[in-house]
Design a protein that fits this description.
BON_dom; three-stranded mixed beta sheet; BON domain-containing protein; alpha/beta; Transpt-assoc_nodulatn_dom_bac
Length: 210
């Protein structure tokens, strides 16, 4: 399979997964993530250590569970952990709820830092969340199309049209990803939540695993 064919296949898969992920949202169901599907391949391609990758999954689950226990349906908060740094997005009815969500996330074991991007606003609609899922899939597909960096190294989260980019990347990769995301249809704003490394460190991480 040549590079163009492989790239097209990856792009089709990303778009297909994005569309599939949208269906449960539009139907009002809580989407369940099949963590075992492709998890091994994703871990190998990731710059995080295998331990950090698994820990991030646990942090997301524990934080989401703690937020439900503490705040219930009062807030709509999405939790994304990357290399043990937690990004909080979504909506809260007051600044007090927003601050409490951050406090709860900070109490979770092994969390290194928190980026609180929760907006004080009414809960987003299912249609809005579905649109965000489609934007995420389009950004990922355009990452593959651009061929300027490995799309596997950057995690994309979209909330109300704002795209958050996470990953362990070089400045060149960060700038390229930001420009691609910024030019994607439907994107209102791009927020970088990166950890920066040098080109030499990036090469070293390609051969990591513990």
């Amino acid at each position: 399979m040549n590079n163009k064919t492989l790239q097209a296949s990856r792009r089709t898969l990303i778009l297909g997964l994005g569309a599939a992920a949208t269906l449960p949202l539009l139907q009002g169901c809580f989407p369940l993530v099949a963590g075992g599907v492709g998890a091994g391949a994703a871990m190998v391609a990731d710059r995080r250590t295998s331990g950090a990758y698994v820990e991030d999954e646990g942090i997301e689950w524990r934080t989401s569970s703690a937020l439900r226990d503490r705040l219930g349906d009062a807030v709509h908060v999405n939790v994304t952990s990357f290399n043990r740094n937690v990004l909080l997005t979504g909506e809260a009815p007051s600044e007090a709820h927003r601050a409490e969500a951050e406090r709860v996330a900070g109490s979770i074991a092994n969390v290194k830092g928190i980026v609180n991007e929760i907006q004080v606003a009414g809960t987003s609609s299912l249609t809005s969340r579905g649109n965000d899922s489609l934007i995420t899939s389009k950004v990922k597909a355009r990452f593959v199309d651009s061929a300027q960096f490995s799309a596997n190294h950057i995690k994309v989260v979209t909330e109300a049209g704002t795209v958050f980019l996470l990953g362990i990347v070089t400045r060149r990769e960060a700038d390229a990803a930001t420009e691609v995301a910024r030019r994607t249809d439907g994107v209102r704003k791009v927020v970088r939540v990166f950890e920066y490394i040098t080109d030499q460190q990036a090469r070293q991480l390609e051969g990591k695993k513990d």
